[in-house]
Amino acid sequence: MAVGSAPWAAPLALVLLAITLAVPALGGCPSACRCSFAMLQCLEPNGIATIPMLALQESENVTEIYIENQADLENITEVDLANYRELKNLTVTFCRLAYISANAFQHNLKLQYV
User: Fold this and answer.
1) What is the largest CA-CA distance in the chain?
2) Where is the signal peptide (predicted)?
3) Each residue's pLDDT tens digit, 41-81
4) Please, what are the domains in the chain?
5) How many C-beta atoms surround the C-beta of residue 111 within 10 A?
6) In the 8-state DSSP scheme, what is residue 18?
7) What confidence tens digit (pLDDT) does each residue in 89-99 have?
8) What are the CA-CA distances from residue 25 to residues 7, 11, 45, 55 (Å)?
9) Which residues lie closer than 8 Å to 105 by C-beta, 6 or more apart?
10) pTM for this one?
11) Nearest by Cα to 78 from 56, 55, 54, 108
């Protein structure tokens, strides 16, 4: 430990570093998907079990979501699409989708195609 440094400085620095590294992963594009300014595509088989929840600044511009070959995707809940307020097109194909909440699209007022 350096002379004059506080004993809590090193642990605090490690905690801050861990938080900084973890935050992008929480809201970032999943590895099984491709994300662009206006589109979210999940094509890698069995890569997701829920509709990805991107960070708000990423999801607010998404107008199209295309999900294919996701055997573990069985439900769309009322929170899954809440941040995709500009969503116009949603395609979910070759998945085991069995349940869509009655309120799943309540925040997607621009939705034109499902």
Assistant:
1) 64
2) 1-27
3) 999 999 999 999 999 999 999 999 999 999 999 999 999 99
4) 29-114 (3.80.10.10)
5) 17
6) H
7) 999 999 999 99
8) 30, 22, 20, 10
9) 81, 111, 114
10) 0.76
11) 108
